[in-house]
Specification:
By secondary structure, the chain is of the alpha/beta class. Helices cover 35% and strands 20% of the residues. It has helices spanning 12-23, 27-39, 53-62, 134-148, 167-178, 198-207, 222-228, 231-234, 237-251, 269-279, 304-316, and strands spanning 5-6, 63-64, 69-75, 81-86, 92-100, 103-107, 111-113, 128-131, 154-157, 190-194, 212-216, 255-261, 284-290, 321-323. The longest helix has 15 residues, at 134-148.
Amino acid sequence: MDEVLNGLDLDYPEWVDALSEKFGLQRYRADQVCQWIYQKKVFDFYEMTNLSKDLRQKLAGSIVITPPVLARMETSKDGTRKFLWQLQDGESVESVLLVQQGRLTACLSTQVGCPLSCAFCASGKSGFVRNLSTGEITGQFLAMEKLTGQDIDNIVYMGMGEPFLNQEAVFKSIRILNEPKMRGLGIRHFTISTAGVVPGILALAEMKIPVRLSVSLHAPNDQLRSKLMPINKQYPLSTLMEALRKYQSATKDRITIEYLMMNGVNDSTEHAYELATLLSGLSVYVNLIPYNSVPGGNFKRSTDGRIKAFADILSKLNIECEIRRERGSDINAACGQLRRVMNQ
Ligand code: SAH
């Protein structure tokens, strides 16, 4: 018997090939199927009414389309929604849907758990289980659009996991959701966030696809950064900065720097000056993120005064920065609060 294909894992050329090889179908059939899945959010071949009954049956017998199943949804008082999805093997991941000035941003997970064990983040605390498949990544997005009945404007790979440790599936998910015959989401509407996995940054630089890049920096020197983020021992700041310079000269694109504000840890005026020196010569936009409490976390959010003083120094040194308003923290949907199991 033929192997059953997972439809959400296929990119457009793969759909065209699969339908032509298996059933001798022409390209426009692939266009129709992709339109049902990615635009109408119809995942059952039997509902694809512009295909013959016979064809629907054949397709259903050899291709499955299985977006993640909603296990739970919570809505924050600011409108942020958090979704817990159950995957085919019983594992689960979370995604978040943010509303900002009427625009919807989907924050997608790329791994079940996370192997990086950053000291301040909940995602790593429950360990690493596995990478998500391409279809499990795009599936989070499609399932959110189907459930809410709304078109989502932006995607940020800032959920659970490290996108550059699951690079192939992440890049493929971008290709699929960007493809005009599929979802057609503009390439500038995708942002990859990394804890500093240098080979991924260099791969993105080489591909020259203008996806936005965001780097979780959180400390301006190796000593502190290695303590907070063990990945820094593998890719220390000098290596990371060199990769960012390469990325920038290849793409000419501004880089977002995420900097968590943790009281008495990384938020002094000296740290601000050190950060400015580290970033000099790069075109960046710094997001200062007040630390969100996570269960078992032993950090405290910086005071408003310290955050403002830090921001003022960066601005004075001509580094553009913004203090990020937190979203969804009342339902543990804010940065660093995503886990494999909801609210435990
Ligand atoms: N691994 C990638 C993608 C995850 S993005 C990365 O690190 O960029 C999640 C973002 O939330 C990262 O910037 C992360 O550093 C930040 N974060 C983690 N724990 C946090 C916390 N307790 N409060 C606020 N932000 C946190």
